[in-house]
Design a protein that fits this description.
Number of helices: 21
Radius of gyration: 28 Å
Helix content: 40-55%
Bound molecules: arginine
Strand order of the largest sheet: 5-4-9-10
Number of strands: 13
Strand content: 5-15%
Distance between the termini: 32 Å
Amino acid sequence: MKGKQLFAKKIAEETIGVLTEDEVLEKVEFPKYQEQGDLAFPCFELAKVYKKNPASIATELATKTKSSYFSKVVSEGPYVNCFLNKKHVSKEVLAEILTKKEAYGSLTIGQGEKVTIDFSSPNIAKPFSMGHLRSTVIGNAYANILEKCGYKAIRINHLGDWGTQFGKLITAYHRWGNEQIVRQDPIKELLKLYVRFHEEAEVDSMLEVEGRLWFRKLEQGDKKALELWQWFREVSLDEFKGIYKLLNVTFDSYSGEAFYNDKMEETIQLLKREGLLSTSQGAEIVSLEEHSLPPCLIRKSDGATLYATRDLTAAIYRHKKYQFAKSVYVVGQEQSLHFQQIFLVLRKLGFNWASQLEHLPFGFILQNGKKMSTRKGKVVLLENVLREAIAMAEKSIEEKNPTLQNKSKVAHDVGIGAIIFQDLKTDPQHSVEFSLESMLRFEGATGPYVQYTHARACSILRKSNRYKNSESLDGLSDEPSWSVVKKLTDFPSKVQESYEQAKPSEIATYLLSLCREFNKYYAHCKILHEDNQLASRLALVECAAIVIKEGLRLLGMQAPSEM
Ligand code: ARG
């Protein structure tokens, strides 16, 4: 928060040679109770150095620490408590936000360096699962946060478009498929064929053999096999793009697993040259025994390459192409071992950039406490879920605000926003419970609640035709305003935390607390009352609207100005 830096600087000036400004900054706390001021500095460590008791050091420091930004500095036991000058600080913060607008909170940590972020990455010819939804929502938000921190994010959709399953699918299509039917509802039909393959393979052992053969043909570039694969890929991608459009998510690259087909041999040769490859039961592997991990499978005994081979190759390719400062994989926690193995093999290959690779795992989506599954026919079609959320949002808008213009656009923003927020308010590592009814509520810890608070702020600004933010601001010193101001000053550090911890949830929970303070303020103050503080109060409202909107944008959500 504003003032914290200054307080740390002043304390550091009084303790020269003992503590640096950064060391003081780390120790500064935010007191729990308002009576204890806005900032507090504990003197225990100084007591050891100066061999005095902490309380007398606190007393001494309190009398010496002065600034026009502090209304008073006092000691309380071993603490130096600082009360900020509300008027002065609020005036400055509001002016800063009004000038910077949505750039407020932007940081320069990344210095324009590139970060590749591998997210969403669904498997073609299969439904887009709830897990892929989480990856999409978390990855998109994290990419936005990276950019807010000054990185150039490169969004990569590593489509699952290669692997033995396509041999099986081609086999099934040849046996039971029908072009017309597949064209009508591609993913559903392809999934049916895939499921049928596994059912029939239990009694007909030839099917597995045939499937392997087709995959081998595919890997060898057989024209017929490739044509079918290409078609499956296209129709699947069309459906996925429909979902991305609803979610308003874009990618810089759709180079999936198949993209690395002609690049894997090089990786295998490299592993060989480095003496890392060994044979086990006919398959080629990299042993990770010394790390107490199972081996990383590189090539099967029948010559087929694997998921890991493609990920190794992709990492090497991406580093060459982008020279990334960091490379992030937003993939479910069930693949943690896979990424551990990949990162280790790259390290063994001597790539020092292997330390810049990061797996961001996440938990499951649950419904009534159980994992939502797309397997075994229990298909939850994501697009239907999204459309249902939009329809429910439309219904509640119809009840609350029937004359609203742009109703369907707002319903879209609110319905989709509810799903995104429900996911992102939770620590990515935890599971999230999926309930459309509760995530669409306009009160409580929901996306619509945050969006509604933003719309409320916009509506006040619309009513105040007198307000132009160029008017000179006075600053505000009452408690309800101060609580909002304090929250607003927290935004830049929340951006930084969400980046450092790779947790969009830091932004989501921050927005909830900002909205709570703003709504308290709204309930307590006659904002539009004509007095000499009107412009300052309206500026506060505008600043809250700016920060909420920017926070929502980082999460990948829209902020309708009316709802
Ligand atoms: N397609 C994979 C799956 O659905 C996820 C791919 C994640 N990205 C990667 N580079 N492995 O399980």
